[in-house]
Amino acid sequence: MASSRMLRTSVVGLASLAAALAAALSGTAQAAPTAPQLAPQAAPAAVGAKASGSMQEPGVTASLWEWSWPSIASECPRLGAIGYDGVQVAPPQDSVKRTSTGNGSDAYLHPWWEVYQVVDYGLTSRMGDEQQFRDMVADCRKAGVKVYVDAVINHTTGQGNVSYGGKTFTPYTYPDAGYVPDDFHYTVGACPSADGGIADFNNKTQVWNCNLVGLEDLRTETPKVQARLAAYLNKLLRYGVSGFRVDAGKHMAPADLDAIYDRLDRTKDGKRPYWALEVGPGSPGVLSPEAYTEHGDVLGLDGVKQIYGAFTSYSDHQGDISGLATFGSGSGLTRSSRTMSFITNHDTNHDQANALTYKEGPQYLLATEWLLADGYGSPQVFSSFTFGADTNQGPPSDDQGLIDRASCADGRWTCDHAKTGVVGMVKFHQYVGKAAKKHVYADQQNVLAFSRGTKGWAGFNNGTSAKTITVKTGLKKGTYCDAVTGGKVKGACAGTTVTVSGSGRATVELPARAAVAFTKQTRL
Ligand code: LM2
Ligand code: CA
């Protein structure tokens, strides 16, 4: 669990990591190369076209994280039918395949995090082979679902010597990717810390040039590395991918990101690729999520914490979900149009701190439903595998680490993206579009309700007992089906029915830890 603690620290960006890093690094069998030598001066990075202002919105996406390619291919028709605009997939490039376990708590031979250690850019991975990847992208596109790839472009590995694709490597030398020691910051002496790790998360040179949790940091400022990375991303674009979640975005200088983005081709739809940078909160100035919005969208990691706080702090009398009425730019977050929002992602999911996850059951679903109603950012629904107490646990797989077929029936996969309430709220989100939040009811007692213009209304109860509220809904007189309990099916309500009076008011019972929502579309 040292690993998850490390990552949380990096995401949160707390200052001194030196001791922890040294300890973590000594845990790896990898020797640093001999004395750092001086590298020839790299050509100045090209002034890249900024990604901001030039991309399409991804809308609602599902992150089917560490689902295999055939499993995602089969799921895409359902995603499309529900109304998802896209699916985000785990890093598809070839990664380290461990042959022995690490020390102490690091007991899983194939932990989930293997895929974040890049060996080369062939598309053979735990999730499937290149043909399966291509077929998946094609099948999803056919179903009207765009594919977004988790792009690990900041670093290679920190351990091991063999990959899923059967490639071999040694520290700082990756023949199949074409990398030699001069392609890494540490090797050329460009990382200003004694052990090559990031000791100070407020120091931009360290954050950009040193090894994040021992992962060998690429010289993303050089034309050679930029070209290599762009070739990988362009291959994915040629296969029909629509954009990227940029792993460890904060650990690359904005100029490097711009230069790489500038080398990217258009998507199959003729658009500039989506580009969402992972920039963990906690560091100031140029390292802040806000600063990175000049170079792409950013992941809403600060929002994850605020949402977690609102949903979990009521018993401490520190706040409640009605405070989320002003969530977004009103609560100090990056602007909606530049943010990918979510309740949890693969990191916070495994950290089990400062984020709601599937383990919180109804509260996690309630939060997911609320985010879809709120309209902040481009909401992403996280859906992956279930796991036990050891947060290193990998996805269900065979003894070689190859991931099993996902099933929503065997209890090993959460399938939160397909739960009835989430499905109803994806439809709600798509229907209300950009309509403004109106008729806000925030009772300071863990209940929040609002309309989206005159198109839809939603109420959320985070309390442990049911609560009945009478509110103005913004909708016309009529009988409506609750989207959360199944909506309108063949002219009848699958679940709860709500009556709106001539004055636009309704008396709604909000069950414990649950939501009720309806739109003009679910009117009988
Ligand atoms: C990320 N974003 O910036 C990913 O979202 C996160 O999941 C990745 O960390 C990280 N950055 C690098 O891509 C995960 C995981 C780490 C794990 C790394 C690499 O949270 O724990 O580190 O992937 O697999 C593991 C060990 C760690 C070791 C490191 C290098 O847990 O103890 O560090 O490998 O050998 C010495
Ligand atoms: Ca870097």
UniProtKB/TrEMBL annotation:
Q: What is its EC number?
A: 3.2.1.1
GO MF, one term, reads: alpha-amylase activity
- Kindly state which keywords UniProt assigns to this record, in alphabetical order: Calcium, Carbohydrate metabolism, Glycosidase, Hydrolase, Metal-binding, Signal
What reaction does this enzyme carry out catalytically? Endohydrolysis of (1->4)-alpha-D-glucosidic linkages in polysaccharides containing three or more (1->4)-alpha-linked D-glucose units
Q: Which InterPro entries match?
A: A-amylase/branching_C (IPR006048), A-amylase_C (IPR031319), Alpha_amylase (IPR006046), GH (IPR017853), GH13_cat_dom (IPR006047), Glyco_hydro_b (IPR013780)
Top EC class, one word: hydrolase
Cofactor dependence is on: Ca(2+)
Q: Name one GO biological process term.
A: carbohydrate metabolic process
Q: Where is the Glycosyl hydrolase family 13 catalytic domain?
A: 59-429
Record keywords: Metal-binding included? yes
| Domain Alpha-amylase C-terminal, chain residue ranges per copy | 438-522
Any signal peptide, and if so, which residues? 1-31
- Decide whether keyword DNA-binding is in the record: no
The record's similarity note reads: Belongs to the glycosyl hydrolase 13 family.
Q: What protein name is recorded for this chain?
A: Alpha-amylase
